[in-house]
Amino acid sequence: MIIVTRPGITEAELDHIRERIEQLGMRTHISRGEHRTVIGCIGDETVLREAALLSIPGVESVTPVLKPYKLAAREFVAAPTVVQVGDFVGASFGGRELAVIAGPCSVEGKDMLRTTALAVRSAGARLLRGGAFKPRTSPYAFQGLGRAALRMLADVRAETGLPVVTEVMDPRQVETVAEHADVLQIGARNMQNFSLLSEVGRVQRPVLLKRGLSATLKELVMAAEYIMAEGNRDVILCERGIRTFETATRNTLDVSAIPVLKADTHLPVIVDPSHAGGRASLVMPLAFAAIAAGADGLIVEVHPNPEQAMSDGDQSLTPAAFADLMHGLRAFATAAGRTLPSAAEATVAA
Length: 350
Ligand code: PEP
Ligand code: MN
Prior knowledge:
Helix content: 25-40%
CATH topology of the largest domain: TIM Barrel
Strand order of the largest sheet: 7-8-9-10-11-12-13-14
CATH architecture of the largest domain: Alpha-Beta Barrel
CATH class of the largest domain: Alpha Beta
Order of helices and strands: EHEEHEEEEHEHEHEHEHEHEHHEHH
Oligomer: single chain
Structural class: alpha/beta
Distance between the termini: 43 Å
Radius of gyration: 21 Å
Bound molecules: phosphoenolpyruvate, manganese (II) ion
């Protein structure tokens, strides 16, 4: 149930409404907008039906939320959520400026990580990605450097000023990964690992939640709801391609996911054109499409020498190709009413 208050409501009136709802056994979530305050009520809605809520001073309207998710629902908050990563300049998702995360699929060593970080930073990326724990289809494939990679990521952050985005695969790793990383990535294969979702919901780090390979958008948003229900409201949704009958590309980028998620939720939405297309040559057109459709940012795989990459080399851009992508993106950003930091701005800020 959503309660919208009258403009100019006093704090005492607001407190009274909240107390009344909580007395009825529901939890409340207050969202203050410029003109109105929205009170989301979570719990058994049947008790509210008889509660004469419209008679409480300051209440303007009472509307049931028909969607199965509440905290992530657009109706639930007064303004779109902007997720700010720590106090890193430009590392925010959902504002006017687009945020681009770039880096290798896997952290393979300190030198390659540092080289990549410097290159992507100077091209305008605001955050560094790099897998330490890798979810590989084969148990015999490279599984990532684990804790050693986390330390490398933290060292390179100290050197470059770029905040770190890395995947956490297991609830038991959440604390350690959160000590080193600035954004916790939940991979596509773990989108419905509910104990992992709840665990990242209890830490104070933004979460990048990737859509499962065969997940509907409703399932993606319900996964976000798991995280938010534990108290962590800083969730960034990521469309990374889904499995369809088409085999020409690694996955099928669901462009329509972007406007649908933006309309139904208040959360920022970014796109991963690398895992969607599965080939370096597809990254640029898919990235352009994503920004044109309203995405708030991108996550892109970049490797100093893709042919030597230990994972996802086929879809990794060279630093030069990444710089070209960022250059080409500018016109699409402008057309979509968004901005991108110039390469020089990004370097100075970091
Ligand atoms: C990744 O970002 O390297 C990754 C494994 O992505 P996904 O979970 O989307 O497959
Ligand atoms: Mn990858």
